[in-house]
Amino acid sequence: MSHDIADATATETRPAERAHTLQATPSVIAVQGLTKRYASGFEALKRIDLDIQHGEIFALLGPNGAGKTTLISIICGLVNASDGQVRVNGHDIVTDYRAARAQIGLVPQELTSDAFATVWNTVSFSRGLFGKRADSAHIERVLRSLSLWDKRRNKMITLSGGMKRRVLIAKALAHEPQILFLDEPTAGVDVELRRDMWDVVRSLRDQGVTVILTTHYIEEAEEMADRIGVINDGEIVLVEEKAALMRQLGRKQLRLDLQTPLASIPETLAHYPLSLADDGHVLVYTYAASPDEHSTPASISALLNDIEAAGVRFKDLHTEQSSLEEIFVNLVRKDA
Amino acid sequence: MNFRAVGTIYHFELARAWRTLLQSLVSPVISTSLYFVVFGAAIGSRIQEVEGVSYGAFIVPGLIMLMLLTQSVSNASFGIFFPKFTGTIYEVLSAPVSYLEIVLGYVGAAATKSLILGLIILVTASFFVPLRIDHPFWMLLFLALTALTFSLLGFIIGIWAEGFEKLQLVPLLIITPLTFLGGSFYSIDMLPPVWQTVTLFNPVVYLVSGFRWSFYGISDVSVGASLLMILVFLGLCLALVGWIFKTGYNIKP
């Protein structure tokens, strides 16, 4: 799947390891049976299996307390796993943590910063911490890409929340990671900044960086993600390509506003999946949203003909497609 | 070994001290000067020489130890407590650095600061009393070992503390009393026999005694015992730090 990445890593591994790497790690991040149990007995993660592919934007969606941050924290080294294994480009996060962590940048959920350090110093600190040679040209590029260049001499304490968020992204990018984790990147961020950040994330993806973001804003996942994983109550409920997810689970509705309300659906239309709404004023036809189901348009025109033939008159019609949000709510509810 | 990361933490921590220069360096110097005024001049003028050394000069090694101990503990405990408190510790934990490197960075910076402080106090003291250093190598060794050991202790306290109260608790309730009762301002020969025995259980006695020996060649306990004691204490702190990182105690759930 992601042999290019495995090849890239091979430059720093021996041939024997390389063969192993190619075979064992088709994904950038491979999570197997990951479990986190706290001393209280609470299970934050329950045998999670997950594969992240090279170069994708993966959105991890879930309600508060679902385990999103715990999962990220384990992969990034902030929390110890109770059981299971995580490999980053083939490197185990425990036994080979240096190689694993060197490839990862993490933007945490909370706006933490050393209040009195300047933007430039705190971003440079991050690069040094990851063992990279000082490179002011790179730091400058990162700061400019995040519109932070003018603020480089400002102390963190003088920055707004949105600016601090940008600095945290800059810190995560300071060591040129191949994988970027964004934990709720746009929580509490205004609309304009949110759009800016999405652009930054997209441009990173275009540079080949794999991005994993957690969010509970459906809009964000819908806008950004290539694939979506839904986590609820410590379990991955579903992992799917966003488009496929919309196709599979998304339903379209054709709603016809009737001229005269119906008490029941006429016999001649009984074989269609129809229902009545608004006290019989609206006739609702539900069908799969998938564009490649050829039957759909045909069945709509057949339906309209049959409605005409049944003597039902309508004054207006429109279609609705379920959003990711509805899909998500349905999933989480079903699971609960 | 990720030396660049160690250096990064080390320099960042020292830069923090530079930013807070006033409390880092000036205030200990002022309080040391006050000790000299009170103990050296006011009280010292009524005390005879102690084992051939004027009282003012006699208390210098003890005073330096007192400052070294309290400053090492507070520097190192704040150094690691603060990132934990503000949350910036996430970055250190997610970086490709080993626990040893984290400790080297934080503890190294704290020990450096208190070492510099100790030397500044030494210079300050030389303005008040005539000083003599018989064994400069040993003096520096004791200074460095003590700074290192108590910075490690401070690091442990900083990890252990969950709030500012706990952070102050150990220095206030343990370090300061032990130092005051550790022969900083007196020779233990001056104590009644029972207390002379009790005081031998105080580890600080050994530090002060060894350090004073490096100045004037006089000591309460043998120099070997002093060195052994500080090495034992260093070993204990290292073991505790090792345990902390092995278990993730209070730092990595």
TrEMBL record, chain A:
Q: Coiled coil where?
A: none
Database matches in InterPro entries? AAA+_ATPase (IPR003593), ABC_transporter-like_ATP-bd (IPR003439), ABC_transporter-like_CS (IPR017871), ABC_transporter_ATP-binding (IPR050763), P-loop_NTPase (IPR027417)
Gene Ontology MF terms: ATP binding
The name this protein goes by in its record = ABC transporter ATP-binding protein
Q: Does the keyword Nucleotide-binding apply?
A: yes
Q: Which UniProt keywords apply?
A: ATP-binding, Nucleotide-binding, Transport
Please name the source species.
Chromohalobacter beijerinckii
Q: Which Pfam families match?
A: ABC_tran
The residue ranges of the ABC transporter domain are 29-258
Which superkingdom does the taxonomy of this entry point to? Answer: Bacteria
From TrEMBL, chain B:
Q: How does this protein lie in the membrane?
A: Multi-pass membrane protein
Where does it localize? Cell inner membrane; Membrane
PROSITE patterns in alphabetical order: ABC_TM2
- Which keywords belong to this entry? Cell membrane, Membrane, Transmembrane, Transmembrane helix, Transport
Which part of the chain is the ABC transmembrane type-2 domain? 19-248
- Top-level taxon: Bacteria
One Pfam family cited in the UniProt record for this chain: ABC2_membrane
Family, per the entry?
A: Belongs to the ABC-2 integral membrane protein family.
PANTHER family documented for this protein:
INNER MEMBRANE TRANSPORT PERMEASE YADH-RELATED, TRANSPORT PERMEASE PROTEIN
Q: What is this protein called?
A: Transport permease protein
Q: Which organism is it from?
A: Chromohalobacter beijerinckii
